[in-house]
Amino acid sequence: MKKIAGRCALITLTTLAAACAQLPGEMTATEDASAPQTYHQAAVPAEMVTAQNTPPAAVVAETPQAKIPPKDVWERVRNGYSMKPMDTDLVRQWENFYSAKPEYFARMVDRSSHYLFHIIEEIERRKMPAEVALLPMIESAYNPQAYSKAHASGLWQFIPSTGKLYGLRQNWWYDGRRDVIAATNAALDYLEKLHSMFNDWELALASYNWGEGAVSRAIARNQAKGLPTDYASLTMPAETRNYLPKLIAVKNIIADPARFGVKLASIPNEPYFEVISVKQHIDVKLAAKFAGMPLDEFRFLNPAHNKPVIKSDGSETIVLPRSQVARFMTNLENHDKPLVTWQAHTVKAGEKPEKIAASYGISVTELKQVNNISAKNKFRTGLPLLVPVKDGATPNLPDLPATPVTLSKAYKAARTSHVKGAKPVKHATKTTAAKRSPAKRAKTPVKPAKAKPPAKPAVVASQSRR
Fold first, then answer.
1. Is the CB of residue 445 less than 8 Å from the CB of residue 129?
2. Span 439-451, pLDDT tens digits
């Protein structure tokens, strides 16, 4: 009996051991529960371990690769298009206009090559439609020195008051509306605000051209008549009626230049310029020399500095091509002569041009040329003038206000957005719109196919309400 019992016990232990060997490795009752828990995989044959550690060829091929950034900025612009298509006669007319002027279009593209990378970076960061990056082509032909009859200035065509509202500093020495970095931020802030008002990019763009007050009143008129309130249904001036079709036409050409017979110059997907701080006053001409740049090119990149002198308060900046920054800094450090040869002089009561010119050793003709004195801009008491710095003298560079401009009442009214009785914009459905007559539209006064591009880029600026 003892032998039988022993055999039974041995069989039982063997069976239990075999059963345990088949179980996954788990924490046993004898392990310390307070110790860090370690989880083990079930035992697997060696050949399976090898197979698991070496992914199959098919799996290796499917491993996602790092996304290669586009080599051309235009690809980023095309990829960011998000506004709805527009297929109208006006769009086709403006497509014909731009495609029939290849040299004009090429000039716009060439000017945009300096700034487009920076602008599309900002637009992507804000998650705005990439079409907005093309808006300066409509506003200023991508000319940061553009100035309109409505006193709108710069790449984004701000009038003085709206520029100040969006933080663009303006004085006698400097105009932030022409500062591409500052003005781009201001324009995108303004467009985001307009989009938040109307919840529609077409109406936001119409407001950018016409004014949010004017668009709000047009919407209110349609609401009162039970009419749709979308861009196509509003009664608006011919310029605003053509504004969005122009943008869409440029968008379509950029999307497929070959279709329109346009050769689109490539723009590298990399920064063109760097922004550097200027701690001292310096002549514009001397700054260009330090950078090894033609004066016109320097002024094109730094159009915000209105005078031959860059007046620095310690935080002023200039824009230089990346390849020229090191050269500029080296030349600036090694320069041991005065950096400024011009200063300001304010005309006192009774002072004549002849007396001032003689005092500073220049001719009356030069004095008038430098200060743009003409029958329109008359010599008067209180007028600030640029005059040479006398040898050894500290240049007089006082803070001076910007020259005031007068805007018409219509332009001021277009900026006022308060509308009595206006309701939030509700876009009509297609079914509703079909039952109603569209609002009367302004006639197009110009046939784009016959229009001629301006001789000077500055004149292209739109008559914006900004």
1. no
2. 333 333 434 444 4
